[in-house]
Amino acid sequence: MDSAARTLVVFHAHPDDEALLTAGTMARASAAGHRVVLVVATDGALGLTDESAFGSRGDALAATRSRELSASARALGVARTVELGYADSGSGPDVWPDPPGGRRFVRVPLEEAATALADVLLEEGADVLTTYDPNGGYGHRDHVRIHEVGARAAQLARERGLDVRVLWATVPRDLICRAIDLVATVYRFPPEFDRSSFDRAFSSSSEITHRFDVRRFAGAKRASMRAHASQAADTGGGDRTLGMLVRIPRPMYDLVFGREWFVDPTAPAGTTQTNLFEGLS
């Protein structure tokens, strides 16, 4: 990485999203002396969990997930965590009614949410902002909204004099499918896990522009995942996907999670960078 200190802002939809896609990059940047800021849009109050252990959906679960987010951020060396506080939009076929005094993220006007994020970018003098691709990775409505809000926020920041690079956090879909199949030889995924959905999720290998080796920070990434204990157990007390992942033996874990990938939508085809801040003025 560059010797000059830079600022990375990572923008995610729910507490625990940072652990899966960007935790290694965040830990790597922090260890290199860069400032890492984590911005999370929603409270995660509609996440599935063991309600007897972590509280029912709503304010109780939101409070639990906020504490888990803080623990994850500490494990990754995050300098500042910002929770925008919008209500989780959920993943079912319909968007739930807005909770008392709140609004589902997908119902918040684009300009309002983008302005809130742009304010953080400007306060921090952000060099790089990570969001998701236009499909939100695997299509969750809040993840799609992260892409839309992030794109507009970067535009607003540029209009106010801050030239911030935007990268889409992603995974090569062919690689993740192979990794899932490898893990499936050791663990049985929970019933809600849809293996076929990954055949059309995230990005093709040809679209990837940034590839980072984060094996040195696999321990921090694993700690970040473990911090989100409420999302590792389902309503029946059994393991969900996150719970399965944190129990993968360390050598296999490092193999599966030792790299992270991003797409720079402005980069020429065939670009391959291994430096998050390469080419910044």
From TrEMBL:
Kindly indicate whether the keyword Zinc belongs to this entry.
yes
- Its domain of life reads Bacteria
Any one Gene Ontology MF annotation carried by this entry is: hydrolase activity, acting on carbon-nitrogen (but not peptide) bonds, in linear amides
Q: Which SUPFAM superfamilies match?
A: LmbE-like
Keywords per UniProt: Zinc
UniProt GO BP? glycoside metabolic process
Matches recorded under Pfam families: PIG-L
Q: What is this protein called?
A: PIG-L family deacetylase
Specify the taxonomic lineage.
Bacteria, Bacillati, Actinomycetota, Actinomycetes, Micrococcales
